[in-house]
Amino acid sequence: MKKHPYFGHTLSRDLNPQQIHPLSLKAPIVHVKAVIKKVEVDGESADGMHQHLLVNQIVVIEIRGAETSLVSDEAFVAIRYGDAEGIPGRIAGFAEGQPIELQGEYIDVNHAHKGVGNPGDSVIHFTHHPIGFVLYQGVRYE
After folding, report:
1. Which structural domain range is residue 43 located in?
2. If we measure between CA atoms, which residue out of 47, 49, 58, 40 comes closest to residue 95?
């Protein structure tokens, strides 16, 4: 598998046309179902506001650009909101123990950066247009 020249994570071997977006890390795209393990505090960075979650019990529905075995059972999720790049606003009502379905770029545990809210788990990010989405309590956000 090819690695990103700077960040070192696995690069998708099958890039999607949407991954030409400047925010894309060209990582594999995963579509998963999971359970919310912990709702973290929102984070703000140069890339905008993000809701942060830790999810576990991950079941891969589809993966593009890598093998399913790359995906671990737990992940840190970053959901961008409040600007033209992310979803319009925060998703209300996230609760521990609740199921969630999402799609986004997957950064494997060996290359994810520890940070506020992320103890070092793999990361699912870019959970908004043009690549990803979040499905929570019957509502689809993208």
Report:
1. 17-141
2. 40
